[in-house]
Amino acid sequence: MITTQICPTCKGPFYRTVYIPKANGKRRRIEIPCPELMAAQRNFLQHEKLTGIGAGPYAFGCVLGKSAVDMARMHAGRNRRYVIRFDLKDAFHNVRPSHLLDVLRFERFTTEEIERRMEIPDWVAEGALSKYRYPRGMFSLIFAEREGGYPPYAAMGAPTSPYMLNLALKEVDFKAAKALRNFGPEDARYSRYVDDIVVSSEGAQAIVLVKKVIIPLFEKHDFKINRAKTKVMRNKSGRQSVVGVMVNDMTTLEYSKRNKLRGWMHRVYMMLLTGKNEKEEEVDFDPEGYIWHEMRKLNGFIDGWTQAAAPEHWKKIREKWNAICIVGKSRFPSGANPSGSGRPWLNPILVEGDSR
Ligand SMILES: [Zn+2]
């Protein structure tokens, strides 16, 4: 997939594509918007917070005021004997403008109201992208066009995309929760963290409902599922993980240490990806600036990290670190190297048996 829009201000493409290797050997494609587009998308999100529609009660990822821990708590408890998980394949790339129209109808917006929402508002028309033509109205700002006549999609690096995904799946979330309520075990619970869906229940009927009703709901809305990766976990011993949080073992020291590292890495990664810190302030990408030093500290902390150091989590840690290195490299001037000249651009995390 190649995106086709060109920015009238910086004259570069609206999206720059980088590939990040995943632990399973495949690559994840991320399209990073140019600074003007990213700023406009972020502005759009701010406006949406005031006038837009929410993600609904079942979405936990990228929702203000909710966290992975909240979602894990929802499924915690000894009596929840079954935890069923599945995830969506390439979720962002399946978000289409039609999904946004559908959710607006689901929210009972009238045709006129929907048309008004698609118009280019003044703050866009007079902003840094005032020269852009917006052939699809507001959709041009939040969806990436691609070659070959395929529908536009939500780019992975756009700050608007997690919000778009949450909206695109809102109706599915409601229908899935309703199916569980109507036909499932009474205590069954449904939740979604970005592209990761978790259902927990006391009774085994929930497994059938997930496979025969809930997964087909996603497929009907054009989202693909890794069916082979659907997991049913039986809660016997009391060790279970929901979106990376151990629900039955949330107090161990080991967990909190790992979590601290992952939280730290995620913070740095998000700053690199979005160009903003948690307080929504611009990040300075000068060599020797704040983020540069954060990367350096992190580099020192995980230097030489091996599989033995965190057997269950090293894949994820390694994956995240590699992503930081790749996105980080694209952010700084070429030749700038936080590990010092003549060395690799930050240190790779080692697989057991690797050598540097
Ligand atoms: Zn630009």
Any overview of this molecule?
The chain has 356 residues and is of the alpha+beta class. The chain is built from twelve helices and nine strands. The strands form three sheets. Strands 3, 4, 5, 6 and 7 form a five-stranded antiparallel sheet that branches. The protein has a two-stranded antiparallel ribbon with strand order 1-2. Helix 10 packs parallel to helix 12. The protein starts with 14 loop residues before the first strand and ends in a 25-residue tail after the last helix. Zinc ion (ZN) binds next to helix 1.
Task: Give the overall average pLDDT.
Answer: 82
How far apart lie the N and C ends?
34 Å
H/E element sequence? EEHHEHHHHHHEEHEEEEHHH
The low-confidence runs, each spanning 5 or more residues with pLDDT under 50, are: 248-254, 351-356
The number of helical runs is 12
**CA-based shape:** globular
Give me the secondary-structure category: alpha+beta
Rg of Cα set: 21 Å
Measured as a percent range, the helix fraction is: 25-40%
In total, how many beta strands? 9
Strand content: 5-15%
Largest sheet: 5 strands, antiparallel
The set of bound ligands, ions and cofactors reads: zinc ion
What's the layout of helices and strands?
Blueprint: E1 15-21, E2 27-33, H1 35-51, H2 68-75, E3 82-89, H3 97-106, H4 111-118, H5 122-125, H6 139-142, H7 161-168, H8 170-183, E4 189-193, E5 196-201, H9 205-220, E6 224-225, E7 231-234, E8 241-242, E9 245-246, H10 253-274, H11 290-302, H12 314-331
Antiparallel strand pairs: 1-2, 3-5, 3-6, 3-7, 4-5, 8-9
Helix pairs in contact: 8-9, 10-11, 10-12
The structure holds zinc ion.
The site of zinc ion (ZN) has 8 residues, from helix 1.
